[in-house]
Amino acid sequence: MTTDALSRVFAALADPTRRDMVARLSEGDATVSRLAEPYRMSLQAVYKHLRVLEEAGLVSRPRGPQPRPVRLEIEALDLMDTWIERHRDRVERRYRRLDAVLAEMETDGHEEGHEDGRRGRPEGAGHPDDA
């Protein structure tokens, strides 16, 4: 699957009804009439949603006589998972680098002029009015 396929998958899942259909199909195959049961829409509208999911490669319906089961296609989910994990890994590496820099800054801050554990102005750097 290409980036265009990935775009179709994400576009198909942008609709909450289609996301719900995918979630329900993750539990097992279902006929269109069974899939349509909880929705307040015509069977024609359900078929339109299924057509978008099919075009995105998320579901399939085998050829043959009715009733035909609708089944979830794992390849489309794998495509999304690969894309998400690649970006998750990049973000996690970036945060690890940031954590290392912050830890180094904290260590450097404790070492500069604070060997005796005191904070504040260095010795001899009094207030101008003290002179």
Description:
With 131 residues, the chain is mainly alpha-helical. Helices cover 58% and strands 6% of the residues. The chain has helices spanning 3-12, 16-25, 32-36, 43-55, 74-111; strands at 30-31, 59-60, 69-72. The longest helix has 38 residues, at 74-111. The mean pLDDT is 85.
Strand content: 5-15%
Give the termini separation: 77 Å
Beta-strand segment tally: 3
Choose one word for the global shape: elongated
The main pleated sheet reads as: 3 strands, antiparallel
Helical fraction equals 55-70%
Work out the radius of gyration. 29 Å
The mean pLDDT is: 85
**With helices defined by DSSP (H or I, 4 residues minimum), what is the helix count?**
5
User: Order of SSEs, N→C?
Assistant: HHEHHEEH
**Strand line-up across the major sheet:** 1-3-2
- Derived from helix and strand composition plus strand pairing, the structural class reads mainly alpha
Uncertain regions spanning at least 5 consecutive residues: none
Layout of strands and helices, then pairs:
Blueprint: H1 3-12, H2 16-25, E1 30-31, H3 32-36, H4 43-55, E2 59-60, E3 69-72, H5 74-111
Antiparallel strand pairs: 1-3, 2-3
Helix pairs in contact: 1-5
